[in-house]
């Protein structure tokens, strides 16, 4: 075919045809871009085609649950074999679409609570997985080889023109909408309310094709709330070691915390233990982090200068608005989050990522994969990878780079800390000779074992037995013994070469609490700046409003 | 101070005070958010404070030149010691602000044509450089420790409410505005025109504080236009080797090209040489790339399925709009670019980066730094770094990973190709024992030598003498000899261990044109799909309109 008679605007024509079909199907029920929720199935039947790539906004927290439910209820005779693109599969309907044959292919990042059912549906041949990504990687593919044809998103409110206010939980919305609207795709938004005047416009109406008020507000999971009452004294000890052995040692000013009780304990020790070490103003000043309730006491103590967030956290809205010097808020005063920018910031502008894991092998590879569950990655692979594109220096980054000792050309290094108790629930050892990820890869036909953080990106492993600094290991054997040396009474730990481990300890590669001058007797819950949810509410001056399930008083 | 009497909204208060001062200074000249260009100095004097962090939109291409000029003309008694944040320093006024004492500190990414003057001003103590970044890294810091207090941006048009249309050259605007507007900062936009109805809203008025129509349209540099007439036959040969020895070898479908004649030659060989090898549909399908005019013949030949862009390219507007199946365009039909998303896409979703450099050392570190010039990095460190946060597999990525042969845990690898003639202009050797970057670091007080791409991230070095595959090198010595083995008649090349180089060639670590079955006699300009600018215009069906300076007919 010559260029002359080739058609170059098929996407635009197809888009126009679908919009016309929607207009016809909805008739006078369509008021500009607004339609009643009762007509959502008609809209989806009109604009979807078999085989479409469809992005359903399933975020880490915010869910386009009404649209997801509607999608799952469509007629599989008319709409089938969709290729779903989704950050997170969190709700049953996210898998119902596959079970019912409406969709057949999936590219995603994280599945969390649906991991076991996802594995079963893959085994049953009902889902073909394209790949599992980290969030920013999946967004990247939206602009290269996986642009969505139709996106189903969630916002707080729309005005009558179709402008959207995404509010505190903006999360993935800007990335999804941009990749769709600027590739001649179709954007459909569910909103909690339709108002005359939005607090602010977050997504211009020009980028949105349809908005529908959902019968119930969209679902939001309070994923980052940890009840301080459940923090153990072992976690307090590990948090003390983290603060004295890593935060203070490298003077880490810019950082990201993973999710969980281990890092919540660190947050709650900043205004007590870290303050007593004279670290205020010297560590933990700038954060890429959601508004963790556990950080309230540190914020109130003046430890924290700024926090940019991937998403928000349920109940933290009023607190965030009242602490606008710390958080990112709009001209209207309400919070703004943005996962794409926060992931970029966490990767390139933070000196440290610290997070928990489930399994670590002898090379330091860590994974949360377990057999029979395809849980995915989320954001950790991106935060927990050395940012090799980074060029600006900081004392922490330079010190880590010196310790890693690149041959020839000096270079900085990101600190990537994996924090784990040697035994997890049900006395499962956290240290293993071989990750479960290997067997999962074999049984699920993955090209590579699903490693969350690769050993050569990890700088430190922290357990209740001590800190192993992998940067200082000169070879694979030393690295293995450094890991065994903090692996406690697990089989991996018991098989240590005792003399070599003592030698590594002499060299400071392994450091135990006593080597750090930490008095273990102080490692009690008394050190926590808040010991209950009520303490957090009190610390916030009553501004924090925990979701009901966390109100135990 | 207790939390009770601590003030938590100083940024918001300060913002309100500045806006009130601006309203007072401008009086009735302020119509909503719009002011006449004659009052710009009054506005800037009203909203700026000494020591402010100010982001001036200097992009790779689009320049907020009117605002930059106004800034450089302010009264240094009133506005001084600004901390400038800027992607690119391209124009004289970008340095005038330092020369005149209005600004004193600088964090940036690239300085290009101002590199020599920048070095002089640093030596003279007029500029303190915070750090030099890659683009996405600098954007990341805007959300962590370098949020702009005031941003001076450029857009195509504003409406009377202050909504902005950024058009094809959106570039860095969304990242800058988001970091400022959501940190209680102040956003000032220069626009080419003020209209009743925008083609589409790109930046909502709620995120913008002031808009001013500039006397002249903002400057745009046609940075990615290369006249095919200037491509040499050596570049044709190197392009043939790239296509047959790398693109075909790894079946690279998703990629980014650096700037320059080397990669322009590859683009112009796709519809001729690559087509003759049966590679259409198998390589170079999806791109993270600006609309390079040299890619027009490949697009017309159906080689290219999609292109997402960092910015646009002057003269390509009509062509892009007419090829909307290939490019990212808005619902209004005009192009959209976005540097932040395209950098993320290039880093995480592309299998290869290929670009030119100035100097390569024996470890494969490459740099464009030369003494007396502080030129910065731009986007290359990010595109040319292994994406260690990537988790999705592709054949190219897996093959590169297998060749690199990670011990223990298998992993994919990004292909990072450095393409360079052994001698550059003025017979300067491209291969050196020690990069000029070392001396530049010493004389400029940098913490590390400014390396563009680190040797351990480079997979291939391609010269007219052949391709060195560094992934296959088993140790530092082999790597050094592989590099010497393609370094031609430079001193580095002449000092090769001939036997070892032949051994590397036997193993396929080094491959010469003849090893690839390339007939060097075919390496003539006849192989180029376009040999002149006029050929490009013709190939575009008259849609491409080159800037005047490229019209040589």
So how many helices of chain A?
19
Just name the CATH architecture of the largest domain in chain A. Answer: 3-Layer(aba) Sandwich
**Alpha-beta content class of chain A:** alpha/beta
**Dominant shape of chain A:** globular
Regarding quaternary structure, what we see is homodimer
Computed over alpha carbons, the radius of gyration of chain A is 25 Å
What value does the average pLDDT of chain A take? 96
Regions of chain A with pLDDT < 50 over 5+ consecutive residues? none
Tell me what portion of residues of chain A adopts beta-strand conformation.
Answer: 15-25%
Strand count, sense and barrel status of the largest sheet of chain A are: 9 strands, mixed
In CATH, the homologous superfamily of the largest domain in chain A goes by the name Glutaconate Coenzyme A-transferase
- The number of strands of chain A is 21
Q: Class of the largest domain in chain A, according to the CATH hierarchy? A: Alpha Beta
Largest interface: A-B, 110 and 110 residues
Q: What is CATH's topology name of the largest domain in chain A?
A: Glutaconate Coenzyme A-transferase
**How many angstroms separate the termini of chain A?**
73 Å
Could you say how many structural domains of chain A there are in total?
A: 2
Share in helix of chain A: 25-40%
